[in-house]
Amino acid sequence: MISRQEPFRSSPHLNIQVDHMIRIAAGCLLVLLLLASAPASFAQKEGNTRSVQGAVTNPDDSTAVGAVVQLKNIKTLQIRSFITKDDGAYHFFELSPDVDYELKADFQGASSGPKTLSSFDSRKKVVINLKLSKK
After folding, report:
1. What pairs with residue 72 in β-bridges?
2. Domain layout of the chain by residue ranges
3. Mean pLDDT of residues grouped by 10 in the chain (135 residues)?
4. pLDDT at residue 55, as a whole number
5. What DSSP state is assigned to residue 49?
6. What is the DSSP letter of 61?
7. pLDDT at residue 131, as a whole number
8. Angle at CA of residue 112, ends 95 and 78, nearest 5°
9. Which of 12, 43, 71, 119 is the most exposed place for a label (fewest CB within 10 A)?
10. 92: which strand partners?
11. What is the CB neighbour count within 10 angstroms for residue 48?
12. Interior CA angle at 53 toward 50 and 132, to 5°?
């Protein structure tokens, strides 16, 4: 006699278990990917960045309250702005040490000449003061 085997039939419980295992595996993979990328981004924010700060003064050496300081990334041409505080101070944080930046200030028709923050400058905190001159 030849025996006929029944085709394999999966139970609904088996399908649910397989789906659950796939979800768990996908979740673990996602967590591993996030953990693998975390040290690189943490290092970029903590130890491998620099900052620039300074003050903007008017032609008569008074502080320029409300002056607009622009920081231009020379590589990407992205511009960040800062409006000076009561003491004429500005600051930019989390700057890449591998990029050159250009700084300039504008206030009430006066502007400063551009100043460069070079990638060759290895200081973590750089001070660049900007002096406005009439156009």
Report:
1. 79, 102
2. 12-48, 49-134
3. 57 66 72 58 62 96 96 97 96 96 96 96 96 88
4. 97
5. -
6. S
7. 97
8. 35
9. 12
10. 52
11. 14
12. 140
